[in-house]
Amino acid sequence: MDVSSALYERPGKYQHAYCEDMDRGGDIRVICNLRANHDWMSTLLHELDHGVYFKYIDPRLPYLLREHAHLLTTEAVAMVMGNQTYDARWLAEIASVGAAPVGNRPALRN
Question: The whole model's pTM is what?
Answer without folding.
Answer: 0.77
